[in-house]
Structure formats: C-alpha cells, structure tokens
C-alpha cells in the first residue's frame, strides 16, 4: 500500500487482514468495479459497519502478483472518485506496475510503500 493509503487505513482502523482478504477475493474474480487502466474498486468492511456501509478502496493491479492499495474513502464521505482523480490513479498504477522489483524493495525500505500479505499469499501491495 502507498504511504497515503496506509495513513488513511490506520485512521479508519482497517486491519491488514481485511485488506489481504479483499485481495484474495479479487484474485478469485470478485471485483466490485474495473475502472480501467489497471485500476479497480473494492468494497471492504469498516469496523462495525460491514462492506455495504464501509469503505471503498482503489487498487492498481495486474490481477496477478502485484496489488497496490492507492486510495481509500468511506462511503459516507463521498460516493466515488471523479474523472480527474481516476486519470491520476491510472498513471500511478501504471508506474507502480512497471517498477522493477529492486526499486519496489527500495521504496518499501524508504517507507513509500508498505508490503502486506506477502507471507500469506505472496501478494505484494
């Protein structure tokens, strides 16, 4: 997950296990919305509210071995992202998906991204 997403997920108390489960669901084909340009929307349960009234996450993914949590918002904060935000997220997703593994490792070391789920399912993000 990106540093910005990690900060947001801590603020709304989303646990890594919940995010990893959502990646597992997406890897099984349970994608809420394909927004184009390797960007996807996935509902995740917020503590005490479930998926329906919970949070929305925006991921960049190749639907294989790379899953990046880019952005998140609570349903009661806003309905969706606008076209300008989507375009920016598509650029970020494309860039992250193209980065060499060594550079991703360095970004993790520098705190730009945080890897979760790796031990459980070898999924980066």
What this model shows, in words?
The chain is an alpha+beta fold and 125 residues long. It is built from five helices and four strands. It is globular. The C terminus is likely disordered.
Chart the SSEs and their pairings.
Elements: H1 3-11, H2 16-27, E1 33-36, E2 39-46, E3 50-61, E4 67-74, H3 83-98, H4 101-109, H5 118-121
Q: Specify the overall morphology.
A: globular
**What are the segments in which pLDDT stays under 50 over at least 5 consecutive residues?**
120-125
Could you give the order of strands across the largest sheet? Answer: 1-2-3-4
Q: Note the gap between the termini.
A: 5 Å
Largest sheet: 4 strands, antiparallel
Question: What's the number of helices?
Answer: 5
Q: Name the assembly state.
A: single chain
Secondary structure tally: strands: 4
Could you give the order of the helices and strands? HHEEEEHHH
